[in-house]
């Protein structure tokens, strides 16, 4: 396992601990496993842990690990307010608001069921 450096360090705003900077996959994995809030350990957190482990094993790049980590940090609300939008947009993550807007633009689809309905 070799440590993989990120192109640019990521600055986090950790509750009760102040700011934390991570700049490698190993530091990120430590942060995710030891310092991450329990309530924020969802799908994006699991994806970030997996991607960081894969980058340490040589299966993924540092950019992939950083991108996944930024998505998890955005979902947990740990990115500093002034840097949140710029950093996340730089890596192509549009956030939940644009995803919600995308869903609003999609026409409603009807699902056709074949056969008898349940309960009849």
From TrEMBL:
Name of the molecule in the record: DUF982 domain-containing protein
Residue ranges, compositional bias (Basic residues): 102-120
Region (Disordered): 91-120
Phylogenetic placement of the source organism: Bacteria, Pseudomonadati, Pseudomonadota, Alphaproteobacteria, Hyphomicrobiales
Annotated organism of origin: Aquamicrobium zhengzhouense
Annotated InterPro entries: DUF982 (IPR010385)
One Pfam family of this chain: DUF982
Origin: domain of life: Bacteria
């Amino acid at each position: 396992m070799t440590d993989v450096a990120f192109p640019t360090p990521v600055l986090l705003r950790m509750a009760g601990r102040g700011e934390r900077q991570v700049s490698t996959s190993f530091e990120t994995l430590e942060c995710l496993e030891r310092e991450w809030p329990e309530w924020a350990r969802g799908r994006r957190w699991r994806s970030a842990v997996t991607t960081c482990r894969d980058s340490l094993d040589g299966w993924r790049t540092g950019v992939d690990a950083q991108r996944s980590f930024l998505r998890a940090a955005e979902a947990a609300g740990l990115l500093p307010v002034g840097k949140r939008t710029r950093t996340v947009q730089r890596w192509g993550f549009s956030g939940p608001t644009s995803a919600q807007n995308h869903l609003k633009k999609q026409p409603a689809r009807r699902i056709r069921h074949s056969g008898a309905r349940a309960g009849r």
